[in-house]
Structure formats: C-alpha cells, structure tokens
C-alpha cells in the first residue's frame, strides 16, 4: 500500500471531522439538491433538511461535484 | 388571397347592463374560461410540467423537456475533453427516461426544471465516473485497504508539531483496531478517488448500504479521536490549511 499523501491525509481528517450521528445519504441529498441549489444562488437561509444536504456535501465529493454542476447550469440560465 | 375570420359569440349577458368596465371585465373572464378549457398546459417557463408530462399526449412536453435538459448538460459539461455532442445526446435521453419514471417524486420544492437538471447531472456524472473504473476484483479491493494509512508520505506532515503527530498516531491506531477490512477498504477507495458506484458494485451491495458502511467507519474513527481527548475543533482545523 502506498503511503498516504498530504491531500489524502487532509481528506481523511476532513471526512472524519465532518461526520455526524445522523447524515443524509446520496439519494436523500439528491432529493433536495435542486432546492438547495436554488436557495444557495438566491442567498436564502437553509432549513434543517437543507443543512443536512450541506453536511453531506462536506463528506461526499461526488454529490459536491454534481451540485456544483447544477449551480453552473442555473447560473448559465440566469446569464443567458 | 383568402382571409378566414372566426366569428366568436360571447355568452348571452356578458355585456348587457354592466357599463363599459363591467363589459370589459366580463370579456376578460370569458376569455380566461375559454383558454382554460381549450388550450393545453403550457410546457415552457415554469407552467405545470408535471401535468403536461403526465398527459396522454405528452409528446410536445417531452420534446421541450429534452431541449431544456440537453441545454443544461451542454452548459455543465461542454468544457470537458471527454464529452462530445453524442455523449450529451445519450445523457439527455437516459435522463428523460429517469425523469419520467420519477415524476411522482417531484414535490414542488424547487422549479421543475431545476429538479430535472439535477437528475440529468446525476445520470451524466455517474456514467462519466464509470469510465474511470479500474479493473479490480473484490479480493484486491479488500487487500488494498488492509494496509491503508499504515504509512504517510513525509510531505504530508511538513511541520509536525505535537498536535498533528498525536492526531495522526491516534487515527492510524483507530484505523487498524476499530475498522473492519471492508470499512478500511471503502475509506481507502474514497481517498483514492475511486467512483462510489464502483465500490458499491465491488461490494455487491446497494448505494445506501455502502454509504452506511462508510459512515459507520468515519463515525468509529471520530469516536476514537474524541475518546483520546482530541476535540472536534482540532480535528476540523489541524489539516485544514
């Protein structure tokens, strides 16, 4: 096994640090992603469910990647 | 040149005895009722997409949604070298199928089109990640995780002070003692950037069960760190820079 790199060690510690007792999984995060993206763009506050989306995004790079892409679409729509 | 004129008869009483304002209001109301009864749901803007897509004759709505979804995918993915127009068309088609299958799950908490884009993005990214899958067996996957985090690159700890040293020492011990082989493997895979769906497939499970395995592993490590007196604040900030 290769030694952990600096990025991997940082990622591991960040992943552990962001862990909560109760978390949304990817499917639950996905169900709220559209609302989360719209409220983020509008600068509106997040309710409890959307705070759990935010927490999931801290520990899940794949959902984070998809959320950023969704926001890019919404921004492109606003600009166009 | 032939000019065709449709003659519309207003219902009796629409104009009678109301004065000009009343007559205008009556015409407006009649027009609204007529439109409601005779014009199918609009499928552009944020008019009732759910109804339009559920209608028996939904071809126009599906076609319009396909255009919207394809435009979104193009905006999100066009800069990527591994995506061409044919990919975008395929993703849009697969996304449409999924969106129509999940219509009942749309709760109206966002615009319909935003919800549709979120599904399309998930379809596209899942497929793109699939292309990065390595050819690896479950045995290899588990074996790879066995010695995970036994060593760390020298550059990972450039200015080792007591706190970092302690945190990494406790973490390494917890990984060795508190995690199962599968838990070590799933964390190692995540840090290697292995697509999560591949991990799910390798483990022969579903995404929710795999996520729980990963969550339980992270939780076990955090519990071990806190039990050793390392605060949440320290965990969050030690390697943040």
How would you explain this protein's 3D organization?
- The complex is a heterodimer of chains A (80) and B (241).
- Chain A is mainly alpha-helical and 80 residues long.
- Chain A has one domain (22-79).
- Chain A has helices spanning 6-17, 26-42, 48-59, 61-79.
- In chain A, helix 2 (26-42) packs across helix 3 (48-59), helix 2 (26-42) packs parallel to helix 4 and helix 3 (48-59) packs across helix 4 (61-79).
- The radius of gyration of chain A is 15 Å and the shape is globular.
- The model of chain A has no long low-confidence stretch (mean pLDDT 92).
- Chain B has 241 residues and is an all-alpha fold.
- Chain B folds into 3 domains: 1-39, no CATH class; 49-130, Rna Polymerase Sigma Factor, Chain: A (Orthogonal Bundle), CATH 1.10.1740; 138-238, Arc Repressor Mutant, subunit A (Orthogonal Bundle).
- In chain B, helix 7 (162-178) packs across helix 10 (207-227).
- Chain B starts with 18 loop residues before the first helix and ends with a helix.
- The interface between A and B is large, with 43 and 56 residues.
Count of DSSP strands of chain B: 0
State the major sheet of chain A: none
Alpha-carbon Rg of chain B, integer: 30 Å
Strand content of chain B: under 5%
Q: What is the averaged pLDDT score of chain A? A: 92
Mean pLDDT across the residues of chain B is 82
CATH topology of the largest domain in chain B: Arc Repressor Mutant, subunit A
SSE blueprint:
The complex is a heterodimer of chains A (80) and B (241).
Chain A: H1 6-17, H2 26-42, H3 48-59, H4 61-79
Helix pairs in contact in A: 2-3, 2-4, 3-4
Chain B: H1 19-38, H2 49-54, H3 59-77, H4 85-101, H5 112-130, H6 138-146, H7 162-178, H8 181-192, H9 196-203, H10 207-227, H11 232-238
Keywords, separated by commas or semicolons:
heterodimer; A: 80 residues; mainly alpha; 4 helices; 75% helix; globular; B: 241 residues; Rna Polymerase Sigma Factor, Chain: A; Arc Repressor Mutant, subunit A; 3 domains; 11 helices; 64% helix; disordered N terminus
